[in-house]
Amino acid sequence: MMEDTAGRIMVRAAMKAPYLERDEEHRLALLWKEDNDQNALHSITVAHMRLVISMASKFRHYGLPLGDLVQEGHVGLLEAAARFEPEREVRFSTYATWWIRASMQDYILRNWSIVRGGTSSAQKALFFNLRRLRARLANGTEPLSNATLYREVSEALGVSEADVAMMDSRLSAPDSSLNMPIADDAGSTERMDFLISDDPLPDEIVGDKIDVARRSLWLREALR
Predict the structure, then answer these.
(1) What is the C-alpha to C-alpha distance for residues 157 and 188, in angstroms, rounded to an integer?
(2) 45 closest CA partner among 6, 79, 9
(3) How far is residue 138's CA from residue 134's CA, in Å, rounded to a whole number?
(4) pTM
(5) 20 CB-contact burial (10 Å; exposed 0-12 / middle 13-18 / buried 19+)
(6) CB atoms within 10 A of CB 149
(7) Cβ-based neighbour number of residue 173 at 10 Å
């Protein structure tokens, strides 16, 4: 959610920021890396806040404030800028995506009660991928029982079927609702009203049917 005016202003500014062409991005990255040019850093980060907001919206179903996710994503964006090497000729958005996602996921893991107390890397993979895999496997040619779903997900992620079942149950009842009002009055704006978009991104759209015999291979590819 973006309950504060500053948050809404940040979103509007980010969505209006111009894209950087490759040459301009490279020039700014060199100024920042070689001369510690703060104006260049500002130009790079502002131009990529649209990416941060888009990625934050993909984590909206965990019930955490969108504004907080955006802030954490901005931390990841700054970390990416500090580590970026323009001479490698990789677009900054490609490089920054990993750092932005990692920062947001760390924030979710720190704040969602389901995963407090520390988890293994396999448990983290289960936490962040179960919903997506469940939805995609449900598009198969045959209806899947929970037992079959849990078995296939456990094999793909390297966790026990019991862990999959437990996480599935917990994710079905998240900590907080996106439809809770921001203020106390009944007519107040809801968290959902501040989401960037409910439409799936292109890389989240899959075919209508998945061949049962190819599910295991598809799962491995989907997690790359």
Answers:
(1) 41
(2) 79
(3) 6
(4) 0.58
(5) buried
(6) 20
(7) 7
> Strands, E, within 46-112: which ranges?
none
> What pLDDT digit, counting tens, does each position of 166-204 carry?
888 777 655 444 344 433 344 444 443 433 333 443 333
The residues pairing with 190 across neighbouring beta strands, listed in sequence order, are 181
- Considering only CA atoms, which of 10, 164, 28, 136 is closest in space to residue 91? 28
Domains and CATH numbers, the chain: 1-111 (1.20.120.1810), 117-224 (no CATH)
Scan for tokens 């990529």, then name that residue. Answer: 48
Higher pLDDT, 29 or 129: 29
Report the phi/psi class of residue 64: left, alpha or beta, with left for phi > 0 and alpha for psi in -120 to 50.
Answer: beta
